[in-house]
What does this fold into?
Amino acid sequence: MEEACGVFAVLAPGEQVASLCYFGLYALQHRGQESAGIAVFDGDKVRLHKDMGLVSQVFDQNVLELMLGDRAVGHTRYSTTGSSRVCNAQPLVFMTRLGPFALAHNGNLVNTVQLRDQLAADGLSIKSSSDTELIAFALQQAVNAGLAWDEAIKAAALKCKGAFSLAISTPDALYALRDGHGLRPLVFGHLGEPGAGAWVISSETCGLDIVGARFNDDVAPGELVRFRLGEAHPFRSRWCEETPKLCVFELIYFARPDSRFFGESLYSYRKRIGQRLAQESPVEADLVIGVPDSGIPAAIGFSQSSGIPFGDGLIKNRYVGRTFIQPTQAMREAGIRVKLNPLQDVIEGQRIVVVDDSIVRGTTSRKLVQAFREAGAREVHMRISSPPVTHPCFYGIDTDSQDQLIAARLEIEEITKHLGVDSLAYLSKEGMLQCAQEQAQNFCTACFDGNYPIAVEEELRERKLMLEAPVPVQSFLN
It folds into this structure.
């Protein structure tokens, strides 16, 4: 699974907002490692700095000290729509009749072709290949047509279909907006004393924590929240009403384990799905091992429920990037041992249960099993703390086309043989949703069942749904 982006924004008069934004993006680095950027507003003047690379590579103290102002919008990117090029880095800064705005986007639109053609027909020149630019153009067009900022943002959002959590700065305010289904997370909190008028927007609560902000609330699905200088409370309004459909993989893998969803840390949820997995698919073994990092909490839960001891059987190199950034299959396979290496002293002669969050292509899992065998494991049993991934995502997680998803092509017995494990079991969809302690219908589970909550353009659907028979677009609507 390749991840979504991270957005962060600050409104804090008298504070070093660029530095606060830097640390917020640093906390959200797991959501994207291709590019990073910050735009700082000082009245109606904007300073923008962005480039390819990690947050710590793009910014240094000298750059941040020059970015003075009272509002900042930041972004760390993994490309979903739009290639990995600096012209697609965010935030984007556009000029309007009311002054400039900066926009950062987490998610992915599914009506990009339609929206691009509509904007091009209106005479706008599309420069990048990013869907974020389409959102920015739609907002610019709405403002220049005579609308005020609040109404223009809503008008632009109504033209968009798909997943979009936005942070927007204008000359006099900061805005946070989520799509009607709330597919990607977005939260806000306050700095300093309540009512002081200093606010922070973040993709996850871990971004609030790192700068010392206190959590206030989630931006609700279909909500626009406005933060203004000197106002003790934000103005909140709904721009559309839809059934909430938060991506369930945010809980299983994407978000950091210390981020809080539904009143608890994701560490607690991931430990709970590990416990449920042990109850659903018990096995006789000597040791439970989690695949770092996202598989560790589930492995601890599996150990607690099963009574099988938990142990560190894999050591992760903390100084290498995620393996998905390797451009070829051969390099991905060669890179597995660079990132993860088994502890022979722990594994040798043992019957081990390996707990991981998901299997996508199966490449990493197969190489890990081979490494465990070479380290002397007597038996290798694999347990996955999510259901089989059978369908691609269109809403901001850049999964492979369907023919590359191993669970879409093979039955569990065939996957077991392909991976070389003694047994394989996945968490049930029911178990995954029940452990979330939230209404099951409030999650998007399309990658497990193909029930897409938002209709997808035919061109995009055909490109990724390689194994599906032709289906009318209307069937994707709940």
Q: What stands out?
A: The longest strand covers residues 99-109. The first helix runs from residue 17 to 27.
